[in-house]
User: What shape does this take?
Amino acid sequence: MPLIVEGGRVPPRWAAEGACRKGGANCASPREHLNIALINNMPDAALEDTELQFFDLLDDASGNVLVYLKLYSLTGIPRTDRGQRHLNSFYYSLDELWQNEFDGVIITGTEPREPDLRDEPYWRVLAKVFDWAERNTTGAILSCLAAHASVLHGDGIGRHRLPDKQFGVFELTKSAVHPLMNGAGEKVCFPHSRWNEVRADELTEAGYTVLTVSADGGVDTFVKKKKRSLFLHFQGHPEYGAETLLKEYRRDIRRFINKERETYPTMPKGYFDPASEKLVSEFREMVLANPREGLMEAFPDSALASALKRTWLSSSTVIYRNWLRYMLAAKAELSELKSFAAVQENPQNKRSVLP
Assistant: This one.
């Protein structure tokens, strides 16, 4: 298992699974290793789930490559006392981030509160993170809202409100040949959960390469080189676990019952099997007939969860593995350039530097 959380800051849920080791000063670094920052900005309810999702995906994708991971989070995101204690226990300060370089960075989104992302309280810090990533990483992954924020900050591309939540597992078609898509097949699928989108024509005009699109879900994956870093954007969520959409669906139903949203949430597309869809439809009819407190106790959680399959896992693993390989190749190339520069500056060391 090649994933190591730096500094011994292992979240208890991950440590309990026995799948992660603590990194430290005495930890040996093999020849092929990568240092990655995970900037997890999800709300408290999803904070630890998101950690596990990215831990699992990186672990699956890394193969024999050792991945050292450091955890960070933006300031300005509302936190409960419990959420803040978790950050204090297992996350590093952004002040430490600015002083470091990483091979890669993964930046998650968070639940937006403002129509214009530039009005969010964390916007200035997030924009600074994007600028830092361009100069101090070779690869960056931007997830969902972070992808929208990145193209807004970098190229002034705004997002567009959708008539309904883009929610479910969508089949995607490859729309460009790119090393990040090697081995992914012509059709891939990823979960989506969003109320907004960025559009293909605006992205291509600004120099982005769209890698995957869906007839129902629009653009999914797109890339652009920004200074020294390749920015890989997902409007969807390759990292999601099998039950993540179910949890979001249940949360939105609860919000409807509690009158925190006006409409009953749409069933996630391409997610449930026929028997599960029948259960979900029957529960919807019961709620709409008489929405009241306590109804969520009758939600068929166990029956739905037992039938779920993570159909997107192989596609997610392939693309993340290609991303890791890209950073390894960039790291090797940089090492060769440094060796060459050292020889040019000090020719008498030629024999010791070059074979």
Remarks:
- The chain has two domains: 3-240+312-340, 244-306.
